[in-house]
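Request:
Um, any thoughts?
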Amino acid sequence: MAPQLHQLNPQEPAAREVRALLAEHLPQLVTGYQSIPPELRRVERNGRVPDRQLIDGLSLIEREIGEMTEDLARGDLDKLAAHGRYLELRYEEMKQIGEG
């Protein structure tokens, strides 16, 4: 994700969202969990168990990071695919007309 982030304008919504996820939401999730005494982390409260909440939150953040990485890389992936297609067309055509 880092190479794509360097190319982003820091004011773009995608850059702000990544920063919020990594610099605010993830630390708040971990800090909130750590503030719970260890003996209470496995105790259900209001239908939820802190250990499970942490795991679910981390899983969600992991999925979001994956989606953000893919979204940020989409332009580079498209450029690479287009260039590969250009090369295929150019050099396959040259072979067909006997220039290659």
Observations:
- The radius of gyration is 23 Å.
- Residues 1 and 66 are 9 Å apart (CA to CA).
